[in-house]
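A student in our group prepared the protein record below, which I am reviewing. I have pasted the whole thing underneath without changing anything:
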Amino acid sequence: MSDTVSEVETPQEPDTPVSPEEPKLSWFKRLRKGLSRTSNQLSEQITGIFTKRRLDEDTLQDLEDVLIQSDLGLETAIRITDTLASTRYGKDVSTEDVTSIMASEIEKVLSPVAIPLELDLSHKPHVILVVGVNGTGKTTTIGKLAAKLTDGGLNVMLAAGDTFRAAAIEQLHIWGERTNSPVVSSKLGADAAGLAFDAFEQAKAAGSDVLIIDTAGRLQNKAELMDELEKIVRVLGKHDPEAPHTVLQTLDATTGQNALNQVEIFRNVAGVNGLVMTKLDGTARGGILVSISAKHKLPVYFVGVGEGVDDLEPFEAHEFAQALANSGADEQ
């Protein structure tokens, strides 16, 4: 049995009503707004390159440099310039020509990783371990995901495994109350692996469908953090050899190239098998998701554009590519 999270409707945030005078933007418009820093910068630079210039080796090199500086990665930059050269070499090229090809090539990179999150509910509880550097939105993402799952009829339990930050524990309890999800927590500084072990037992006894576990993300003391994550994975395996069944990593879209290193680290230690990109809020450097997808080819399950419970949506390659390249009509 499986549940496809992308089909679950999201409840409105109870404490942030939308006034009739200010209708809420569509998801695509919020996404486009969130990626506006990167897309506007790309458009300006591309326009500067191709004003009164035909497509030649110099303009292709200039374009490649711009694409790489926008965190799209060398592989994707070459894909875009090669496609452009094959159809427009020696001809006048407009910004629209470039952004259209750019959107198409970015979509080709992202489409294979735009996969709905499916939970194998033959495992009860299905354990979702959420990892990532502190400040990347782990706890908020857990709350939003719990809202989606509970709204879809599943019983969810949360575990406050970031035992080093009182704020993370308190925040998870708030989300637990908001989503009617019980929260397993302990005192500040408690052993996170022991808490994960106990949470599994409690979720099993309660008949919970899903157990979502928060974790710490202190990369400044990487060895200790990695030891802790390895221990959490190990003790969960004592309950169920296949647990954790889903390991989600949150990535802050404003961090740029550092996000590539973070994926490498957490994938090696915790077996990350899916990504959530957060904070696409207008200061984002969204091109890094393209670079990560080209290199790691991990499923990208969700993107978040804000703090509200309805600001987390399943990742759609076409929408993201159009918004990032500033291509296509803003009609949605």
